[in-house]
């Protein structure tokens, strides 16, 4: 069962988190044939050291794609997909941790269900800086028909959990540079071309979600980029004008609230809801 793992890294990443992320991939019960790491611009010495330790220990497992300058996640993943050797590609974020049996659950499922083009799962969010060890599950719909309906309102996949077919992603135009929404934009185009998406009712990735995450999800720049995404969805006829207005009003309200309120909205009202 051949598959690639795709990771993008840039200079602001935490070396300890990157180490834990890669380690969670190489210790899987079902191991990948290759791990493609896109170095999105020059990295710190500490990050380069982490990557070098792994590549020296597993020289035939890693493929490094260095970019001369930081290009952003959308472009980095676009280049990464093109450089993956296998049609099945598993995404992994550089600061999250995969469950040891993640690929054992996802890869055979994709082989057994060739009609499925993208497969995700639920995630467990944790804050390792919290004294209360806060943990929250982000649930997403499981079946294609429910995912299609849900995608009109919210992102139907947890990006760091997905396994997809390279041919499907390339057919949809690959990742595109759309800040903070590179993945959601791709899922919309994949759904629009009639491809099938599913999620597993399993927590397969543990995701760091501290206060900094919720702070970044606010402000006028975030609203601006969400407007660009929703406008693209409208042009594609992926959403209706009414849905466009509903989405923008709801998102704008969340983005302009103080960070602590935004955190409550996400964790108390959005994380456990798949309506």
In short:
By secondary structure, the chain is of the alpha/beta class.
Please describe the topology of this protein.
Layout: E1 4-9, H1 15-26, E2 34-39, H2 45-57, E3 62-66, H3 73-83, E4 88-91, E5 97-98, H4 102-112, E6 116-126, E7 135-138, H5 144-151, E8 163-165, H6 166-171, H7 182-192, E9 196-208, H8 211-216, H9 220-235, H10 241-256, H11 259-270
Parallel strand pairs: 1-2, 1-4, 2-3, 6-9
Antiparallel strand pairs: 4-8, 5-9, 6-7, 6-8
Number of strands: 9
CATH superfamily: Spore Coat Polysaccharide Biosynthesis Protein SpsA, Chain A
Beta-strand content: 15-25%
Q: What share of the residues lie within helices?
A: 40-55%
Strand-pairing-aware structural class: alpha/beta
Largest sheet: 9 strands, mixed
Return the CATH architecture. Alpha-Beta Complex
Cα end-to-end separation: 35 Å
Instruction: Give the CATH class.
Output: Alpha Beta
**Taking Cα atoms only, what radius of gyration do you get, to the nearest Å?**
18 Å
Rounded mean pLDDT score: 90
CATH topology: Spore Coat Polysaccharide Biosynthesis Protein SpsA, Chain A
SSE string, helices as H and strands as E: EHEHEHEEHEEHEHHEHHHH
List low-pLDDT spans.
none
């Amino acid at each position: 069962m051949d598959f690639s793992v795709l990771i993008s890294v840039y200079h602001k990443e935490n070396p300890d988190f990157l180490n834990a992320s890669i380690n969670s991939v190489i210790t899987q019960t079902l191991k990948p044939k290759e791990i493609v790491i896109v170095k999105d611009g020059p990295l710190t010495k500490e990050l380069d050291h982490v990557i070098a330790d792994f590549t020296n220990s597993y020289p035939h497992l890693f493929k490094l794609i260095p970019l001369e300058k930081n290009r952003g996640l959308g472009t980095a993943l676009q280049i990464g997909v093109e450089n993956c050797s296998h049609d099945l590609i598993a995404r992994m974020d550089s600061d999250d941790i995969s469950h040891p049996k993640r690929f054992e659950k996802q890869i055979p499922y994709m082989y057994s269900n060739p009609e499925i083009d993208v497969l995700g799962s639920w995630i467990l969010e944790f804050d390792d800086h919290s004294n209360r060890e806060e943990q929250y599950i982000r649930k997403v719909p499981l079946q294609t028909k429910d995912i299609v309906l849900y995608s009109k309102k919210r992102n139907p996949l947890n990006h760091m959990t997905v396994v997809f077919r390279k041919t499907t992603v390339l057919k949809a135009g690959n990742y595109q540079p759309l800040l903070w929404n590179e993945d959601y934009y791709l899922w919309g185009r994949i759904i629009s071309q009639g491809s099938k998406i599913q999620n597993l009712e399993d927590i397969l990735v543990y995701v760091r979600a501290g206060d900094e995450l919720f702070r970044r999800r606010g402000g006028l720049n975030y609203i601006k980029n969400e407007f660009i995404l929703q406008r693209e969805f409208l042009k594609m006829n992926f959403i209706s004008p009414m849905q466009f207005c509903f989405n923008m009003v709801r998102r704008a309200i969340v983005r302009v609230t103080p960070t602590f309120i935004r955190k409550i909205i996400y964790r108390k009202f959005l994380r456990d809801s798949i309506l």
